[in-house]
Amino acid sequence: MLKLITIFAIATVINVILSTMRSLFTIKAGKLSASIMNAICYGFYTWVVVLTVSDISLWVKIAITALANFIGVYIVKLVEEKARKDKLWKIEMAIPKEEQSLVTHTLKVKNIPYNYIEVGSWIMFNCYCNEQKDTELCVHIAKSLGGKISAYESQSLT
How far apart are CA 43 and CA 87, in angstroms? Predict the structure, then answer.
């Protein structure tokens, strides 16, 4: 019985990981990749269904399934987060004119490339952020100084 529970637990974790990946592929990947992932996922799911009707207690199955869902989704999201590449973002900040020296000093210290132009009582900063932490800093600057912000993700033209 312990062997069957172990097999069910491992198969359920794998099934959750595959299902979560299938969802991501359906949204983010091309037709072929999404179709292959879908076929693998549902093919494996058939085996999990067969294991589900085994002689394991219902409450053990529920506990294993709940834990497997937590672990499987967490693993996939962690891997997805680690694999996410930073992209170049252009951040436009409208900052009150009296805060110009503070912002220019902060951007220089943090090595965030920028340029600016005066527009009435505002200074319009164009910041070029290569990393997420740079973008977060620009958002923080704008919010804390009562400024306004727009963000544009760089896109490939291919």
Answer: 36
